[in-house]
Amino acid sequence: MNKTKLTIVGVILIAVIVTAAFFTTQLPKKTVAALPVRVVDDIGRAITLSSYPNRIVSLAPSCTEILFALGLENRIVGSVSYDGYPQDIQNWLTANNVSVVGNFGQVSIEEIKSLQPDLVLGTGGYQDPTTQALEGLGMNVMTLSPIGFKGVLNDIALVGNATGKISEQRTLVANLTSSAAAIVDKVQELNKTSVYVEYYFDSTGFGSYGGSSFVNDLISMAGGINVFAGWQGQYVTTSSEVIVSANPQIIIISNGIMSSLAGLTPQVVIQRPGWNEIRAIQNNRIYLVNEDLITLGGPDVIYGLEDLAQIIHPEVFGTYNATG
What we know:
Blueprint: H1 10-18, H2 20-23, E1 37-40, E2 46-49, E3 56-58, H3 61-69, E4 76-79, H4 87-95, E5 99-100, E6 102-103, E7 106-107, H5 109-114, E8 119-122, H6 128-136, E9 141-143, H7 148-163, H8 166-187, E10 193-198, E11 200-202, E12 205-209, H9 214-221, E13 224-226, E14 235-238, H10 240-246, E15 250-255, H11 257-262, H12 266-270, H13 279-282, E16 286-290, H14 291-295, H15 301-312, H16 314-317
Parallel strand pairs: 3-4, 3-8, 4-5, 8-9, 10-13, 10-15, 15-16
Antiparallel strand pairs: 1-2, 6-7, 11-12, 12-14
């Protein structure tokens, strides 16, 4: 699907009102943040900034994409390497010699320290030891660990508040909200379609997404039902028997690093013993979706939502183009 610029249209704003309860997010009442700025990140860490940060280090691709979406690219002095960046972001980082501080799984504390950042953005969970170490060195650290689409909106607002980009974050949040609400509004009265998403498989089982994942949220918003919506956590490891029993109407391959490592393709799925009983295979409804668009907590999740809406309800949103 082509990534077109989001615009605010009056007709779409009506859909926002209709579905407001789904997307309610706390937006700042002021258009200009007074200094010092006090914010609280997703793990409850309180940060006070006496001035707007001008030297920012991003430890995660999702954080980098939020910074770019808010027009903060000129303040980025360090970021992690990542092959999945949109080409325009990758080109900008390369052309402006932004320091590479490592990758998502391992960064150089010394390299980050040498950049003298006044703000470091990271994610929760796996990166907690790193962000805690940086905080221990006296750096201002914010952890963005959003849950679902609403969490992404809140994090965009959070970063905008901390950096003085109040108007920009309001506009971006409004655009994302209205675009998503328009999709939700169109699928509210449609039949729900069961969906199984796989990102990995090996001898231990099949990797899918649980009830607290972005994938689960986006599937629901697009008019579907994740077959593992009732399972706790973001990730699920399950068996062939459970998936066959769930009998999903659609199978989606979360196409990215993990699926590539596993050699996961539609043909591999089709050839699994017993899977010919699954409705998705019988009706040739197996699709590839860019993992970056449905699992990273950044503004591009809107494109993942659009892709899922086309897959689940092509009669409303048109034919899905996996190459876009």
